[in-house]
Structures are given as C-alpha cells and as structure tokens.
Design brief:
By secondary structure, the protein is mainly beta. The protein has one helix spanning 39-45, and strands spanning 5-10, 17-22, 31-32, 50-51, 58-59, 88-89, 95-96. The protein has two domains: 5-59, no CATH class; 73-119, no CATH class. The structure holds zinc ion. Zinc ion (ZN) binds next to loops.
C-alpha cells in the first residue's frame, strides 16, 4: 500500500469526517484538518469530489479564488528592476539575480510597479 497524508473534513451532508488523501507532502501518514494542512496539500485536494461512505453523498473542497481547470495564462509585461547589490557574476560580464534573494515588488523601479489593471 502506498504512503500518503490525510486531511479530514466533515461531510456537508451528514457531518461525519471524510478522509482526503494527498501525496504532495512527505507521505508519512500525517493527518490534518483544513485549518492546519500545508498549502501544498490543500492545493492537491481541492476541486476533486470525494465520496462519503457514511451517507453516500459526494462533496468537493472549493475556493472561488481557485476555480477548477488550468490556471489562467499570466498577462506578463516587462518591468524595470533595481540592480541587486550582490549579483552572481561571470568573468565575461554576465550577471544573474542572486539565488539566495527572493524577488519582490520592492525591487522594481517605482515607476514600473504594475497597476494590476488588465485592460
Ligand atoms: Zn456524509
């Protein structure tokens, strides 16, 4: 039998706990609720109907912010970024964003901050 982790959610039909299994974590047979499960596991179990053996009902874990189906295609555009203090460099002059530094909007040159407007 394969190893997995479990999230227990009360069935909205009968109120009994129903197990949702995920292999997206360490698969050490951990058990969680919707409140304490890792984000990665929640993403794995959402939008997939499960069956309640107690009452023969079906239910799915949904969030309108994450509708079913493939994620929407990002509408990317080029934004100017401030030079990092310690870029990784190559003798021939190439530079890379440092691996140990997360990029955030604080790194953008102010006038380039996107408005979030999708028109
Ligand atoms: Zn039920």
């Amino acid at each position: 039998m394969g190893m997995f982790d479990s999230v227990y959610v009360d069935c909205p039909h009968c109120g009994k706990p129903v197990e949702f299994q995920s292999k997206e974590w360490d698969c050490q047979m951990d058990t969680w609720t919707l409140d304490d499960a890792p984000t990665q596991v929640l993403r794995d179990i959402m939008n997939w109907p499960n069956h309640c053996e107690k009452c023969d009902g079906w239910f799915a874990l949904i969030d309108p912010y994450f509708p079913p189906g493939p994620p929407p295609r990002p509408a990317l555009h080029a934004a100017m970024v401030k030079a990092p203090d310690n870029p990784d460099t190559h003798p021939q002059g190439m530079k890379w964003w440092p691996d140990d530094r997360d990029f955030s909007y604080n790194d953008l040159i102010a006038s380039a901050v996107p408005s979030g407007d999708r028109t």
